[in-house]
Amino acid sequence: EKINKIYHELPIYNKKDINITPTEISDYLNKEPGNYISEIINKLESLLINKKINNKKEELLKYIGDNYGNI
Questions:
Q1: How big is the chain by its Cα radius of gyration, in Å?
Q2: Is 59 strand, coil or helix?
Q3: Looking at residue 67, what is its pLDDT?
Q4: In this predicted structure, what is the pLDDT of residue 7?
Q5: Looking at residue 70, what is its pLDDT?
Q6: Exposure string (b/e) for 6-45, b if CB count within 10 Å is 16 or more?
Q7: Burial class (CB in 10 A: 0-12, 13-18, 19+), 48
Q8: What digits encode the pLDDT tens for the residues 7-62?
């Protein structure tokens, strides 16, 4: 029961639930799509699961710009 409760409290259940697409990431960074996108998606997934960031597109884009704007 405890595991079930924790599961249902997760903000996302898999990467497809992240409220941003790889194309939106590459467009936002004004870069061609590449391996860097999977790194960003993995980081966002970790942040979301640990409730360090909200699954709102604007907040995700701000995080990406602040942390990956120079790649």
A1: 13
A2: helix
A3: 96
A4: 87
A5: 80
A6: eeeeeeeeeeeebbbeeeebbebbeeeeeeebeebbeebe
A7: buried
A8: 888 899 999 999 999 999 999 999 999 999 999 999 999 999 999 999 999 999 99
Half-sphere exposure (Cβ direction) of 22: Cα atoms closer than 13 Å: 12
- What are the Cα distances from residue 20, in Å, to 26, 50, 58, 62? 11, 18, 9, 12
Q: Give the C-alpha distances (Å, rounded to integers) separating 17 from 41, 44, 71.
A: 11, 11, 25
Residue with tokens 């960031």: 53
Whether this model's pTM surpasses 0.85: yes
The Cα–Cα gap between 49 and 29 comes to 24
